Amino acid sequence: MKKILLTFSIFCFALSFAQKGQSYLQIGYGSICCGTPSTDPVMNYINQFQKKNKIKSIEVLKQSGMGREGEFNLYICIDNLSKTQQPKFIKGLQTAVLDQNSKRKQNSDGIVNFEEVTMISKADLANSRNLTIYKK
To answer: What residues form DSSP beta bridges with 119?
Structure first.
């Protein structure tokens, strides 16, 4: 009986960690006339946050082919962040996007869209086309 109970508890424990739902933040890069903006401000912020908080890696996915002028989305996984790090990361990411949008030329530069309350799950991304791991 003890072996069955032990086996069952190990199975439940392993299953609970294997079923971890991954949450992603979505950042959209749109074009007005002359292509999309650079990902440098967002990627620099992610790299700085990783180094400052000693996080192994933050997964970033890119979905391309969203428009004729190279529009694309970035999906940033926040599951490796603790519950206290997540709000700080989101706030800093929002600041990086707002700074980038405020420095753009209104009539020619593209815009970066970010809604911090919108979470995308791994299941939602499973059916997406043109999705690759983003490395820069």
So the answer is: 25
- Single-letter amino acid, residue 109: D
CA gap 8, 132 in Å, rounded:
37
Residues present in the chain in total: 136
Instruction: Quickly count helices (H) and strands (E) in the chain.
Output: 4, 5
Six-digit token pair at 50? 């990783």
In Å, what is the CA distance from 115 to each residue of 19, 26, 56, 93, 108? 26, 7, 25, 10, 23
pTM higher than 0.70, yes or no?
yes
129, amino acid identity: R
pLDDT tens, residue by residue, 73-114: 999 999 989 999 999 999 999 999 999 999 888 777 889 999
Q: Could you tell me what percent of the chain has a pLDDT over 90? A: 44
Query: Are 122 and 24 in contact, with CB atoms under 8 Å apart?
Result: yes
